[in-house]
Amino acid sequence: MKYVAAVDVGGTSIKAALVSSDFEIIDTATAPTPKGDSTGIETSRAIAELVFSFELKRPVSAIGLAVPGALDEPAGTSRWSGNLGWKNVPIRDLVAKETKKPVAFGHDVRTGMVAEMRKGAAQGFQHSIFIPIGTGIAAALVIDGEIRSSDGYAGEIGHVNVGHDRLCVCGKHGCLEAISSAHSIGESYKEISGKSATSEEIFNLAKNGDATALKVWEDAIHYLAVACEQLITILSPEAIVFGGGVSVVGDELLVPLKKKLDERLTFQRVPQLLIAHYGSQAGTIGCAMLALDAASIA
Ligand SMILES: [Zn+2]
Q: How far is the CA of 142 from the centre of ligand 1 (A)?
């Protein structure tokens, strides 16, 4: 049995998991993301600490590292990340230097697609899209059986204009992410009701007849349908797989979304709508798969 560390670097925290070669999560650990670390050196040291804490339990053969933002995946660099304050940071090599281990490197959404494509809901499709709906929204695109990212830039479905007037973190109005992400669902509900709640709690309130929660939830699904229609028209996937926090409601998301898409699609191929097999763990499992690949060739 081999063991690898799957590491997801987010804007507020670094989440790490010790994963076995049969994809069992043995242990998890979290550390705050160092603030103002424009060189990535502090972050690579924090990652090394997490990996070394795992090594007290199991030998770690390799690391799978997932980072948000615009990446140059072959070069192992973060071109830009607004949340991390990074510009051209060679994070893969920094982590390799600190840990002296092989490091596989990828975008946080595309690593999730690796898991879904190899062993999850997107298995067997030549053309599919993975959309985790969490704090933000982005898409991983599988075309002709391969994950395509156009040099690391493609898939930013969260920032297409779906036709509302809310302001997005990117500075524009009307972005999908500004109305349908878990974060935005919570914000919208708070603006009207004055109360804080998670997207799942808002879903439950909507089910129990709370009119504000219902409106917020329905808006989120409506605009998700608008964005999916655009994706389907341009890319014609056989399946769209939803992950992240908002997808935990399962059919309660898929059924109304399918109904809206059935009304909107005319000539397009109608894709299957599915929930991620690995749920919110897709990114972790995908990172572990990439790390195991790296361990086997190191
Ligand atoms: Zn935006």
A: 23
* Cβ atoms of residues 153 and 70 within 8 Å: yes
Lowest mean pLDDT among 3-7, 83-87, 174-178, 218-222: 83-87
| Model confidence pTM above 0.85 | yes
Q: How close are the terminal C-alpha atoms of the chain, in Å?
A: 16
How far, in Å, from the CA of 270 to the mean position of ligand 1? Answer: 27
Task: For 221-270, write each residue's pLDDT tens digit.
Answer: 999 999 999 999 999 999 999 998 889 899 999 999 999 999 999 999 99
Alpha carbons 239 and 130: distance in angstroms, whole number:
9
Q: How far is the CA of 16 from the centre of ligand 1 (A)?
A: 28
Q: What domains can you pick out in the chain, each with its CATH number?
A: 3-108+281-297 (3.30.420.40), 121-276 (3.30.420.40)
The rounded Å distance from CA 199 to ligand 1 centre is: 19
Question: How remote is the CA of residue 169 from the centroid of ligand 1, in Å?
Answer: 6
62 neighbors 294 (Cβ within 8 angstroms): yes
